[in-house]
């Protein structure tokens, strides 16, 4: 190997990589407390000569999905997928016509579905997300994601992702962070959109899951999804999911609801510099406005504790210049 | 940005990156069927103009740990750690003096320990791997790994890793593969050595785990390890672990025992080109020789099925030029 060539390449590459001083790495973020907190945090943990430097292998950033990276209002996207599956599977289940919460789904009676509570929602998930192979589920969910549009914005759900967060994810990665999703959604569902939408590979998604089993069916090895919850990645489950899957305490965590509070509490309680942030849905015009009384993504206790804990509340209305990517 | 500079960099970088025709990417592998199978497989799935091309995001390679990447004979390293923990914790457990399998461990009576079977081993694991925080366990296991030497080779266990496999892992990564460990060992134990030893980050380790819970202890958020198995990543559990954690069927799988058979069966049953390999421990002189009657890492049914399934049996004695890295 010719070392002169190598030296030349390294020198020029370093030169080319220096960003122009005027470059805005987060162009869809308005100047303000949140943007400053992010930029200062990243500068501190990547400054080798500073006292708050963090090795690249420890630069773990975790993001909730629903309401933090994509729209969750008025109903979680995965629940809408499950409702559509109930309608699709109804001919094979005549008993659903009279049996809640399925009756409510078939009659678009969301009040009845809501009245069935978490137990009802779990019944719907089990009936629509199991009893099939992993590959069959992937096909069903991929087809739905590729074709179903959100009524208000008339765009695919996988396009209703937040442009400022896409910039933040990309920026963190250029700074040596490894970015993960840690969300209450089903891991097998979320994975189908995270790679293309966020640049987050399938194996960097931590989520809820059903028990699965390996079987050889007609000589073909398959994984089968069973009608039993394996793990619920919400609230106190999130730090556990992080431990089991990632194996390191993150240094940055971003959520939007009380379901993310334990994850952010766990993250910011670590030694050294840490950053915890919540998206606050304050923008009824460009997206939705909900917090303490939201029927999804309730942000209440976390809002009360934010000041004391040093958590950053990111106001969608004030901190984000744009919400969705341009078509 | 000066485009002339950029062009120069790209040109020079491309020039520097072209390997010399004579470069051997797997220098510790002897020429033979196994090495040829690996090189031909990688060439085929990375050749964009060929019919067997695989997108980088799908280039998932999974490796068992014990006996595939590091020594497992005469006893799994993690079991040895557990036995040492039993001795260390014995003063707090006077009842262990008369109670199997603990009595056997304290008296170095491996026959008695073995007679307690899988149930006994689980009791030992539960008693030594739980009832503490994640951070406390990490400290205990890290200290042990940093100081305990294997008696025959007089080296740290984390140094008794296979040089040919280090080369293969590195080679696969240069070819756009993402490398994972999928092993029966405890994920929290394995992670402590995989990054430095193999270049495999903590979150790319799939393993067995205990139930864990999030708690705030004296105001400090911690994850606590409970005395209950969460998941056993062995045999038919391995494809399930792959599904839950990685979310893609691998295209290459490397194991060494019947505990890896389902993982390799699942991998090689996928569409398109696939590669399944087993390390065959045939080298009593440089390492150990065991297979069909091994009390650890039994390789029996897989050996019978290898020909029919197209699985590659890698003979340590014949296929590996060196076994361990030079000091």
Explain the overall architecture.
The structure is a homodimer of 327-residue chains. Chain A is an alpha/beta fold and 327 residues long. Chain A contains 13 helices and eleven strands. Chain A has helices spanning 3-17, 33-46, 77-89, 102-106, 110-115, 117-129, 134-147, 163-174, 187-198, 237-245, 261-268, 301-309, 316-319; strands at 60-63, 132-133, 149-150, 155-156, 178-186, 205-217, 220-231, 252-255, 275-282, 289-290, 312-315. The longest helix of chain A is centred in the N-terminal third of the chain and has 15 residues, at 3-17. Residues 1-17 of chain A have low confidence and may be disordered. At the A-B interface, helix 1, helix 9, strand 6, strand 7 and helix 10 of A face helix 1, helix 9, strand 6, strand 7 and helix 10 of B.
Label the structural class of chain A. alpha/beta
Oligomeric state of the chains?
homodimer
Largest binding interface between chains: A-B, 47 and 47 residues
The rough form of chain A would be described as: globular
The stretches of 5 or more residues of chain A where confidence is low (pLDDT under 50) are: 1-17
Q: Quick one: biggest sheet of chain A?
A: 9 strands, mixed
Q: What is the β-strand count of chain A? A: 11
- What does the average pLDDT of chain A come to? 93
Strand content range of chain A:
15-25%
Helix content of chain A: 40-55%
Kindly report how far apart the N and C termini of chain A lie: 47 Å
Number of helices of chain A: 13
One letter per element, helices H and strands E, the order of chain A comes to HHEHHHHEHEEHEHEEHEHEEHEH
Q: Compute the CA-based radius of gyration of chain A.
A: 22 Å
């Amino acid at each position: 190997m010719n070392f002169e060539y190598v030296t030349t390449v390294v020198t020029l590459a370093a030169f080319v990589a220096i960003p122009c001083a005027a470059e805005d790495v987060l162009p869809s973020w308005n100047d303000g407390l949140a943007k400053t907190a992010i930029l200062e945090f990243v500068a501190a943990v990547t400054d080798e000569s500073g006292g708050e430097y963090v090795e690249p292998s420890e630069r773990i950033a975790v993001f909730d999905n629903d309401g933090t990276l994509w729209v969750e209002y008025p109903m979680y996207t995965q629940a809408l997928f499950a409702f559509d599956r109930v309608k699709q599977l109804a001919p094979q289940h005549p008993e659903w016509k009279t049996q809640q919460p399925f009756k409510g789904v078939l009659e678009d009676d969301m009040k009845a579905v809501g009245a069935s509570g978490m137990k009802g929602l779990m019944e719907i998930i089990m009936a629509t997300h199991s009893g099939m192979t992993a590959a069959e589920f992937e096909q069903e969910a991929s087809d739905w994601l590729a074709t179903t549009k959100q009524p208000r914005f008339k765009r695919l759900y996988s396009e209703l992702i937040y442009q400022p967060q896409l910039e933040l994810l990309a920026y963190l990665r250029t700074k040596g962070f490894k970015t993960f999703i840690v969300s209450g959604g089903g891991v097998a569902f979320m994975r189908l959109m995270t790679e293309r939408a966020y640049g987050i590979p399938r194996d960097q998604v931590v989520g809820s899951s059903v028990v699965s089993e390996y079987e050889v069916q007609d000589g073909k090895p398959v994984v089968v999804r069973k009608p039993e919850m394996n793990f619920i990645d919400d609230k106190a489950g999130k730090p556990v999911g992080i431990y089991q899957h990632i194996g390191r305490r993150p240094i940055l965590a971003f959520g939007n609801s009380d379901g993310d509070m334990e994850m952010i509490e766990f993250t910011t309680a670590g030694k050294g510099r840490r950053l915890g942030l919540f998206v606050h849905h304050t923008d009824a015009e460009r997206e939705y406005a909900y917090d303490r009384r939201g029927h999804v993504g309730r942000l209440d206790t976390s809002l009360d504790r934010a000041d004391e804990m040093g958590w950053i509340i990111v106001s969608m209305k004030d901190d984000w210049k744009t919400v969705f990517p341009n078509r």
